[in-house]
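Bench notes, afternoon.
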Amino acid sequence: MEKFTLGIAQVSPALGDLDRNLALHDKILREAARQGVDLLLFPELSLTGYFLKDMVPSIALTPRDPRLNALKEMSREMAIVVGLVEESSDHRFFNAAAYLEDGKIRHLHRKFYLPTYGIFDERRYFAPGETIRAFDTRFGRMALTICEDLWHPAVPYIAALDGAELILCISASPGRGLLPEGTFANAAAWERLNRTYAQLFTCVLCYCNRVGYEDGTCFWGGSEVIGPTGDVLLKAPLLEEQLLHVAVDRREVRRERIANPLLRDERLDLTVRELQRITRELQRILRLRAEGTP
Protein backbone atom coordinates (compact mmCIF):
# COMPACT_ATOMS: atom_id res chain seq x y z
CA MET A 1 0.00 0.00 0.00
CA GLU A 2 1.74 3.18 -1.19
CA LYS A 3 -0.66 5.67 0.43
CA PHE A 4 -2.20 5.12 3.83
CA THR A 5 -3.49 6.95 6.89
CA LEU A 6 -1.19 6.87 9.91
CA GLY A 7 -2.76 7.56 13.30
CA ILE A 8 -1.35 8.50 16.69
CA ALA A 9 -3.21 7.84 19.96
CA GLN A 10 -1.63 10.27 22.42
CA VAL A 11 -3.25 8.89 25.56
CA SER A 12 -2.80 8.62 29.33
CA PRO A 13 -2.79 4.94 30.36
CA ALA A 14 -3.85 3.99 33.89
CA LEU A 15 -0.93 2.72 35.99
CA GLY A 16 -1.15 -1.01 36.59
CA ASP A 17 -4.76 -1.38 35.37
CA LEU A 18 -4.69 -3.70 32.34
CA ASP A 19 -8.48 -4.05 32.02
CA ARG A 20 -9.02 -0.30 32.04
CA ASN A 21 -6.28 0.22 29.47
CA LEU A 22 -7.66 -2.50 27.20
CA ALA A 23 -11.03 -0.74 27.33
CA LEU A 24 -9.31 2.55 26.46
CA HIS A 25 -7.59 0.93 23.48
CA ASP A 26 -10.88 -0.56 22.31
CA LYS A 27 -12.64 2.82 22.47
CA ILE A 28 -9.89 4.64 20.57
CA LEU A 29 -9.53 1.91 17.95
CA ARG A 30 -13.25 2.12 17.17
CA GLU A 31 -13.01 5.89 16.80
CA ALA A 32 -9.89 5.59 14.63
CA ALA A 33 -11.69 3.07 12.40
CA ARG A 34 -14.52 5.57 11.88
CA GLN A 35 -11.90 8.15 10.85
CA GLY A 36 -10.35 5.80 8.27
CA VAL A 37 -7.02 5.16 10.02
CA ASP A 38 -5.00 2.27 8.52
CA LEU A 39 -2.20 2.05 11.09
CA LEU A 40 -2.54 3.32 14.68
CA LEU A 41 0.24 3.74 17.25
CA PHE A 42 -0.17 3.79 21.02
CA PRO A 43 2.64 4.94 23.36
CA GLU A 44 5.24 2.94 25.28
CA LEU A 45 3.69 0.58 27.86
CA SER A 46 0.25 1.74 26.73
CA LEU A 47 -1.39 -1.37 28.20
CA THR A 48 0.16 -0.96 31.65
CA GLY A 49 1.42 2.54 32.47
CA TYR A 50 5.12 3.34 33.00
CA PHE A 51 6.33 3.41 36.64
CA LEU A 52 5.26 -0.16 37.36
CA LYS A 53 8.12 -1.12 39.69
CA ASP A 54 7.18 -4.35 41.55
CA MET A 55 3.94 -4.70 39.55
CA VAL A 56 5.91 -5.84 36.46
CA PRO A 57 5.52 -9.64 36.98
CA SER A 58 1.83 -9.41 37.82
CA ILE A 59 0.90 -7.39 34.74
CA ALA A 60 3.11 -9.11 32.14
CA LEU A 61 1.63 -10.83 29.10
CA THR A 62 2.88 -13.52 26.78
CA PRO A 63 2.16 -13.07 23.05
CA ARG A 64 -0.46 -15.85 23.31
CA ASP A 65 -2.30 -14.37 26.28
CA PRO A 66 -6.06 -14.45 25.50
CA ARG A 67 -6.40 -10.90 26.82
CA LEU A 68 -4.70 -9.78 23.58
CA ASN A 69 -7.28 -11.55 21.40
CA ALA A 70 -9.56 -8.51 21.00
CA LEU A 71 -6.61 -6.41 19.76
CA LYS A 72 -5.59 -9.18 17.37
CA GLU A 73 -9.12 -9.33 15.99
CA MET A 74 -9.23 -5.53 15.53
CA SER A 75 -5.94 -5.70 13.63
CA ARG A 76 -7.77 -7.43 10.75
CA GLU A 77 -9.27 -4.01 10.01
CA MET A 78 -6.45 -1.73 11.13
CA ALA A 79 -2.77 -2.41 11.94
CA ILE A 80 -1.93 -1.55 15.56
CA VAL A 81 1.19 -0.87 17.63
CA VAL A 82 0.85 -1.20 21.41
CA GLY A 83 3.28 -1.12 24.32
CA LEU A 84 3.25 -3.94 26.88
CA VAL A 85 5.27 -5.88 29.43
CA GLU A 86 6.19 -9.15 27.72
CA GLU A 87 7.07 -12.28 29.69
CA SER A 88 9.36 -14.68 27.85
CA SER A 89 9.21 -18.48 28.10
CA ASP A 90 12.12 -18.39 30.57
CA HIS A 91 10.27 -15.80 32.72
CA ARG A 92 12.24 -12.70 31.88
CA PHE A 93 10.31 -9.45 31.51
CA PHE A 94 10.73 -7.01 28.64
CA ASN A 95 9.52 -3.50 27.91
CA ALA A 96 8.11 -4.43 24.48
CA ALA A 97 6.26 -3.05 21.46
CA ALA A 98 3.96 -5.30 19.43
CA TYR A 99 2.94 -4.76 15.81
CA LEU A 100 -0.40 -6.44 15.06
CA GLU A 101 -1.73 -6.98 11.55
CA ASP A 102 -4.22 -9.40 9.97
CA GLY A 103 -5.26 -10.95 13.26
CA LYS A 104 -1.87 -11.72 14.78
CA ILE A 105 1.28 -10.24 16.28
CA ARG A 106 3.55 -9.86 13.26
CA HIS A 107 6.54 -8.38 15.08
CA LEU A 108 7.67 -7.89 18.67
CA HIS A 109 10.44 -5.46 19.61
CA ARG A 110 12.14 -5.61 23.00
CA LYS A 111 13.62 -2.30 24.20
CA PHE A 112 17.42 -2.31 23.95
CA TYR A 113 18.42 0.65 26.00
CA LEU A 114 16.86 0.69 29.45
CA PRO A 115 17.40 4.07 31.15
CA THR A 116 18.60 3.64 34.72
CA TYR A 117 19.55 7.11 35.84
CA GLY A 118 17.79 10.08 37.42
CA ILE A 119 14.10 9.20 37.78
CA PHE A 120 14.46 6.07 35.60
CA ASP A 121 14.98 2.57 36.98
CA GLU A 122 14.12 0.25 34.06
CA ARG A 123 17.20 -2.00 34.30
CA ARG A 124 16.08 -3.07 37.77
CA TYR A 125 12.83 -4.57 36.44
CA PHE A 126 13.40 -5.39 32.75
CA ALA A 127 15.83 -7.42 30.68
CA PRO A 128 17.25 -5.67 27.59
CA GLY A 129 16.37 -6.72 24.06
CA GLU A 130 19.10 -8.24 21.94
CA THR A 131 18.11 -7.80 18.29
CA ILE A 132 16.71 -5.19 15.97
CA ARG A 133 15.03 -6.21 12.74
CA ALA A 134 13.17 -4.32 10.06
CA PHE A 135 10.06 -6.22 9.00
CA ASP A 136 7.63 -6.24 6.10
CA THR A 137 4.05 -5.00 6.44
CA ARG A 138 1.33 -4.06 4.02
CA PHE A 139 2.55 -0.45 4.42
CA GLY A 140 6.12 -1.30 3.44
CA ARG A 141 9.18 -2.27 5.42
CA MET A 142 9.42 -0.66 8.85
CA ALA A 143 11.19 -0.89 12.22
CA LEU A 144 9.93 -0.52 15.78
CA THR A 145 11.85 1.29 18.52
CA ILE A 146 11.01 2.30 22.09
CA CYS A 147 11.90 5.71 23.54
CA GLU A 148 15.55 5.56 24.78
CA ASP A 149 16.43 3.27 21.85
CA LEU A 150 16.27 6.28 19.57
CA TRP A 151 18.85 8.23 21.59
CA HIS A 152 21.42 5.74 20.33
CA PRO A 153 22.06 6.45 16.61
CA ALA A 154 23.13 2.86 15.90
CA VAL A 155 19.48 1.80 16.25
CA PRO A 156 17.92 3.91 13.45
CA TYR A 157 21.12 3.41 11.41
CA ILE A 158 20.76 -0.39 11.52
CA ALA A 159 17.01 -0.14 10.89
CA ALA A 160 17.52 2.01 7.79
CA LEU A 161 20.27 -0.25 6.42
CA ASP A 162 17.95 -3.21 7.05
CA GLY A 163 15.53 -1.60 4.62
CA ALA A 164 13.12 0.29 6.88
CA GLU A 165 11.24 3.09 5.13
CA LEU A 166 9.27 3.89 8.27
CA ILE A 167 10.76 4.07 11.75
CA LEU A 168 8.17 3.94 14.50
CA CYS A 169 9.06 5.06 18.02
CA ILE A 170 6.67 4.66 20.93
CA SER A 171 7.61 6.63 24.01
CA ALA A 172 6.80 7.47 27.64
CA SER A 173 8.97 10.56 27.97
CA PRO A 174 8.58 12.65 31.14
CA GLY A 175 9.02 16.42 30.85
CA ARG A 176 12.43 17.54 32.09
CA GLY A 177 14.19 20.92 32.13
CA LEU A 178 11.56 23.66 31.94
CA LEU A 179 12.53 26.36 29.40
CA PRO A 180 11.68 30.11 29.79
CA GLU A 181 8.97 29.84 27.11
CA GLY A 182 7.19 27.17 29.19
CA THR A 183 8.18 24.08 27.18
CA PHE A 184 10.42 21.20 28.23
CA ALA A 185 14.08 21.02 27.20
CA ASN A 186 13.86 17.33 26.39
CA ALA A 187 10.78 17.95 24.20
CA ALA A 188 12.86 20.35 22.09
CA ALA A 189 15.67 17.80 21.98
CA TRP A 190 13.29 15.08 20.77
CA GLU A 191 12.09 17.36 17.96
CA ARG A 192 15.68 17.94 16.77
CA LEU A 193 16.42 14.23 17.02
CA ASN A 194 13.34 13.14 15.04
CA ARG A 195 13.94 15.62 12.22
CA THR A 196 17.61 14.71 11.98
CA TYR A 197 16.99 10.96 11.76
CA ALA A 198 14.16 11.30 9.23
CA GLN A 199 16.34 13.42 6.95
CA LEU A 200 19.61 11.50 7.44
CA PHE A 201 17.98 8.12 6.83
CA THR A 202 15.43 9.46 4.29
CA CYS A 203 12.53 7.74 5.98
CA VAL A 204 9.21 8.56 7.59
CA LEU A 205 9.64 8.79 11.35
CA CYS A 206 6.61 8.52 13.64
CA TYR A 207 7.06 9.42 17.31
CA CYS A 208 4.14 8.61 19.65
CA ASN A 209 4.52 9.90 23.20
CA ARG A 210 2.06 9.63 26.08
CA VAL A 211 0.54 12.29 28.33
CA GLY A 212 -0.75 12.33 31.90
CA TYR A 213 0.85 11.97 35.35
CA GLU A 214 2.29 9.12 37.42
CA ASP A 215 3.70 9.63 40.92
CA GLY A 216 3.90 13.39 40.25
CA THR A 217 5.81 12.91 36.97
CA CYS A 218 4.37 14.67 33.91
CA PHE A 219 4.48 13.10 30.44
CA TRP A 220 4.52 15.83 27.82
CA GLY A 221 2.98 14.37 24.65
CA GLY A 222 3.97 16.36 21.55
CA SER A 223 3.81 13.29 19.27
CA GLU A 224 4.74 13.90 15.64
CA VAL A 225 5.26 12.46 12.18
CA ILE A 226 8.27 13.63 10.15
CA GLY A 227 8.65 13.13 6.42
CA PRO A 228 11.87 11.97 4.65
CA THR A 229 12.80 15.59 3.89
CA GLY A 230 12.79 16.40 7.62
CA ASP A 231 9.52 18.34 7.31
CA VAL A 232 6.81 17.99 9.96
CA LEU A 233 3.74 16.18 8.60
CA LEU A 234 1.80 16.04 11.87
CA LYS A 235 2.29 17.58 15.33
CA ALA A 236 0.21 16.84 18.42
CA PRO A 237 -0.23 19.42 21.21
CA LEU A 238 1.62 19.18 24.51
CA LEU A 239 -0.03 17.62 27.56
CA GLU A 240 -3.40 16.82 25.91
CA GLU A 241 -4.95 13.49 24.99
CA GLN A 242 -5.46 13.45 21.22
CA LEU A 243 -6.29 11.08 18.39
CA LEU A 244 -4.64 12.45 15.25
CA HIS A 245 -3.96 11.11 11.79
CA VAL A 246 -2.12 12.08 8.62
CA ALA A 247 -1.85 10.79 5.06
CA VAL A 248 1.50 9.13 4.32
CA ASP A 249 2.72 8.57 0.75
CA ARG A 250 5.62 6.11 0.53
CA ARG A 251 6.53 7.52 -2.88
CA GLU A 252 7.95 10.50 -0.98
CA VAL A 253 10.60 8.15 0.44
CA ARG A 254 11.53 7.00 -3.08
CA ARG A 255 11.74 10.59 -4.34
CA GLU A 256 13.94 11.68 -1.45
CA ARG A 257 16.25 8.65 -1.75
CA ILE A 258 16.75 9.43 -5.45
CA ALA A 259 17.48 13.11 -4.70
CA ASN A 260 19.74 12.32 -1.73
CA PRO A 261 21.14 8.77 -2.10
CA LEU A 262 22.73 8.78 1.36
CA LEU A 263 21.84 5.17 2.15
CA ARG A 264 23.04 3.98 -1.25
CA ASP A 265 26.44 5.56 -0.60
CA GLU A 266 26.77 4.32 2.97
CA ARG A 267 30.07 2.41 3.49
CA LEU A 268 28.90 -0.48 5.63
CA ASP A 269 32.18 -2.38 5.15
CA LEU A 270 34.11 0.64 6.44
CA THR A 271 31.79 1.03 9.43
CA VAL A 272 32.05 -2.65 10.40
CA ARG A 273 35.85 -2.69 10.00
CA GLU A 274 36.36 0.38 12.16
CA LEU A 275 33.92 -0.83 14.82
CA GLN A 276 35.81 -4.13 15.00
CA ARG A 277 39.08 -2.21 15.44
CA ILE A 278 37.59 -0.10 18.25
CA THR A 279 36.14 -3.23 19.90
CA ARG A 280 39.54 -4.97 19.82
CA GLU A 281 41.18 -1.90 21.35
CA LEU A 282 38.60 -1.68 24.13
CA GLN A 283 39.01 -5.38 24.88
CA ARG A 284 42.78 -4.93 25.08
CA ILE A 285 42.40 -2.03 27.54
CA LEU A 286 39.99 -4.05 29.71
CA ARG A 287 42.35 -7.04 29.68
CA LEU A 288 45.30 -4.87 30.77
CA ARG A 289 43.23 -3.35 33.55
CA ALA A 290 42.21 -6.82 34.74
CA GLU A 291 45.87 -7.89 34.76
CA GLY A 292 46.84 -4.74 36.68
CA THR A 293 49.16 -3.53 33.92
CA PRO A 294 49.61 0.27 34.06
